Amino acid sequence: LDQATAATLLASIDRALADGRLFARPDLSLAQLATAAGSTAHQVSEALNRFGGVTFHDLVNRHRVDDVKAQLLDPANDRYTIEGIGASAGFGSRSALYAAFHRASGMTPTAFRASRGPIEPSSRGWP
């Protein structure tokens, strides 16, 4: 792959992961992602590793962690357990969630949720 082709493919990979929350499938494989991105597993792997500087698993986990963070920031999700939120983002186990979350953010999901603090009405978009 040349750099321009890889850049286009990386954008397709990101769209494929985000559209329909493909990243949230716990059984997502490189081949399935490649099909969704309109490419081959080999090309996706090369684009990610060589041009994106990330492995397939790290990329998927990055999307999953971002989703968990967004859910933890939403007070409407306070009734859900962290493990339930992690499962909805595609994590297959509590340990996988905590390891990926800590690697990406330097803190546990529990600490992240606690750091949110009370939400002021003005920060919810209310006048």
Distance between the termini: 51 Å
Instruction: Assess the beta-strand content as a share of residues.
Output: under 5%
Please compute the radius of gyration using only Cα atoms: 16 Å
Major sheet summary line: none
* Sequence of secondary-structure elements: HHHHHHH
Can you put this structure into words, describing what you see?
- The longest helix has 18 residues, at 56-73.
- By secondary structure, the chain is an all-alpha fold.
- The relative contact order is 0.12.
- It has helices at residues 3-18, 30-37, 41-52, 56-73, 82-88, 94-105, 109-115.
- Residues 119-127 have low confidence and may be disordered.
- It is elongated and about 45 Å long.
What's the SSE blueprint?
Elements: H1 3-18, H2 30-37, H3 41-52, H4 56-73, H5 82-88, H6 94-105, H7 109-115
Helix pairs in contact: 1-2, 1-3, 2-3, 4-5, 4-6
Provide the descriptors you would attach to this structure in a database record.
63% helix, single chain, 127 residues, disordered C terminus, 7 helices, mainly alpha
Question: Concise description?
Answer:
The chain is mainly alpha-helical and 127 residues long. The protein is 63% helix and 0% strand.
